[in-house]
Specification:
heterodimer, A: alpha/beta, Rossmann fold, 3 domains, six-stranded parallel β-sheet, 21 helices, 19% strand, B: alpha+beta, Alpha-Beta Plaits, four-stranded antiparallel β-sheet, 36% strand, globular
Chain lengths: 567, 87
């Protein structure tokens, strides 16, 4: 499915000798890289030496995991590969969580690691670790560079592989002797590149899908992160509008159809809306687009949409019928497939009315009793106030689900969340990456008191580069989601979830030179939102919330989505 | 049930480990492996005998997952006859 071509990378004049490190920097510049997130160390020092004087904007993070997660968010917003860099040994292993995060969420990323010099490899040298081997399961591909002359074409290929097909992270491991070596680069550097596989439109599949849609009386459009990956949100919106088929989204799909559009029923799955899960459960046809029937969306798989036929459209043929057998499967350019699908609609007016009535009947309410800060209401109001410029980056836990349930999103890039891996600590580095990727956006990191401690050192990065990140910290002095599950499924045996001895987060932020304030009562929410969003520089709002507040609805683990629990 | 799959690929550092690892991580027990290294300028070939572990596993999905690995040229399912353990 691939064809190789050759391209030229450089001028035709013979060039002076260059080091491998210089070739690395040149390769990044040639790929149009603007921002590199990293942390220097012994084995990568030649590259850092070559960085000075380059056009690259290097963001010095305070932990390599922060570099990978910031690059991840940068890529999600721009659609281009994010770049992170670290030294060998612990520098490389600290990247691992970020690489896994990008792998699970199909985010294009190029990770560059230093390695001990080639003759030392395999000798247990200082800061030597098998980075190539450790990362094999969590990268789309990887290269261990053995020859300085290979650097230009390996980098060109790395960027192409990261962003083509099903995107993902790639890794380039650079032994120190390779980056230190010099070569006289030829006037013309031949670079082997490959044309990505192209899947022609499946005429038979389109016809069959059209027939199924025409015959359906209770169809549901179920879409996921594949929409944003393939930048198919406009095609999705066109399909949604011309068919009128009620729609539900996965966690990663949120925003592809604006969440306040009529006919959009919300997120499905474990913490999905009752309207969304009921529609899927009662549907007679499921049109799955850019989603993968993952367990958080489906609940007990063999009870998911039990009466529905399935049309599955995805960018990756490996996803078709992986978990759910389908009547029609089409792999390829999601946007092109959707634009080619113009079915004659049967009468689904009764179904549309049922879904719309359910959405109203089971809409979230924000009139909770009491005077304490109510996180769902706070988030709902914050997102409305921020408007279409909002980008939310989440950490992982209860607050992540509240964001998904209660924030308004008008584009998929507005909701950056660690969906597949569920990485606590994603929020702040992701906020840094998003703010650099889209400086005009209003970037808000919503975090919890457990998650924020996972990468709190990146407050120093925010301060250093004056990144105007707004941090909304929902502090219940608990590992809230674990506590909720222990309450519901472990007979209230609360084991190691009490964070009663949290530090004063506002004081911590101030110690990093970041403005901060604390929100204690619901009556102060409007003022807090105003201050959070209007502060020109970075700011942290430390909101104390009730530790007994749970995320509802909830599908218990191993249960059908029709067995939702409510408060 | 035992399956045999044959993978042709462009030789590259770590590619054999990458492919074997993928098959195991996707939930297949490896029963036998035969590796033919590439001749100069040629392709490598892996012939694997595998058995799916419990769960929703389809050979078509595994083949598609292998096919998308960088450098893989083709994936074929051969007869169900397993490779000899000594292979």
């Amino acid at each position: 499915m691939h064809s190789a071509t050759a391209s030229t990378l450089d001028a035709t004049q013979p060039a002076p000798a260059k080091t491998g490190a210089q070739l690395v920097v040149e390769a990044l510049e040639r790929e149009g890289v603007t921002d590199v997130f990293g942390y220097p160390g012994g084995a990568i020092m030649p590259v850092y030496d070559a960085l000075t004087g380059s056009s690259l904007n290097h963001i010095l993070v305070r932990h390599e995991q922060g570099a990978a997660l910031a690059a991840d968010a940068w890529a999600r917003v721009t659609g281009r590969p994010g770049v992170c860099m670290a030294t060998s040994g612990p520098g490389a292993t600290n990247l691992v969580t970020g690489l896994a995060n990008a792998f699970m969420d199909c985010v294009p990323m190029v990770a560059i690691t230093g390695q001990v010099a080639s003759p030392l490899m395999g000798t247990d040298a200082f800061q030597e670790i098998d980075t190539f081997g450790i990362t094999l399961p969590i990268v789309k591909h990887s290269w261990l560079v053995r020859d300085v002359a290979d650097i230009p074409h390996i980098f060109a290929e790395a960027f192409r592989v990261a962003s083509s097909g099903r995107p993902g992270p790639v890794l380039i491991d650079l032994p120190k002797d390779v980056t230190q070596a010099s070569i006289h680069t030829p006037g013309v550097i031949a670079c082997r590149t490959e044309t990505p596989a192209v899947f022609p439109l499946d005429a038979q599949g389109l016809a069959r899908a059209g027939q199924l849609i025409t015959a359906a009386r209770r169809p549901v459009l179920y879409f996921g992160g594949g929409i944003a990956l393939s930048r198919a949100e406009d095609a999705l919106k066109r399909f949604f509008q011309r068919t009128g088929i009620p729609a539900v989204a996965t966690l990663k799909g949120l925003g592809a159809i604006p969440t306040d559009w009529p006919g959009f029923l919300g997120m499905l799955g474990m913490h999905g809306t009752r309207a969304a899960n009921t529609a899927v459960n009662d549907s007679d046809l499921l049109i799955c687009v850019g989603a993968r029937f993952d367990d958080r969306a489906t609940g007990k798989l063999d009870t998911f949409a039990p009466g529905a036929k399935v049309i599955h459209i995805d960018g990756d043929p490996a996803e078709i019928s992986k978990l759910r057998a389908v009547e029609v499967g089409m792999a390829g350019d999601i946007g092109a497939i959707l634009d080619a699908l113009h079915p004659k609609m049967g009468d689904i007016s009764e179904w549309q009315k049922t879904c719309a009535d359910n959405a109203v009947r089971w809409a979230f309410r924000y009139d909770a009793p009491g005077s304490g800060v109510y996180a769902p209401g706070l988030l709902n109001a914050m997102a409305k106030a921020a408007g279409d410029k909002l980008i939310v980056t989440c950490d992982v836990g209860q607050h992540q689900m509240w964001v998904a349930q209660h924030c308004r999103f008008t584009r998929p890039q507005a909701h950056l969340t660690s969906a597949g891996l569920g990485t606590m600590g994603f929020g702040i580095p992701a906020g840094i990456g998003a703010a650099l990727a889209e400086p005009d956006a209003t970037v808000v990191t919503v975090s919890g008191d457990g998650s924020i401690m996972m990468n709190i050192q990146e407050l120093a990065t925010i301060r250093r580069y004056r990144i105007p990140l707004k941090i909304l910290l929902l502090d219940n002095s608990q590992l809230g989601m674990v506590r909720q599950w222990q309450e519901l499924f472990y007979q209230e045996n609360f084991s190691e979830v009490d964070l009663y001895d949290n530090p004063d987060f506002a004081e911590i932020a101030r110690a990093f030179g970041i403005e901060a304030f604390t929100l204690e009562h619901r009556s102060g929410e409007a003022e807090a939102i105003e201050r959070l969003l209007s502060t020109r520089g970075p700011v942290l709002c430390h909101a104390r919330i009730d530790p007994r507040e749970n995320v509802w609805p909830l599908v218990p683990p191993g249960k059908s989505n029709s067995e939702m629990m409510e408060a | 049930m035992t399956h045999r799959i044959e993978i042709d690929f462009e030789p590259a550092e770590g590619q054999v480990v990458r492919l074997i690892g993928l098959v195991e991580r996707r939930g297949y027990e490896l029963l036998g492996v035969n590796f033919q290294p590439a001749a100069m300028g040629g392709k490598g070939r892996l012939d694997m005998s595998v058995r799916p572990r419990p769960g929703p596993r389809r050979m078509e999905t595994l083949k598609a997952q292998i096919s998308r690995v960088y450098g893989v040229l083709s994936v074929r399912e051969l007869t169900a006859e397993p490779l000899r353990e000594s292979a």
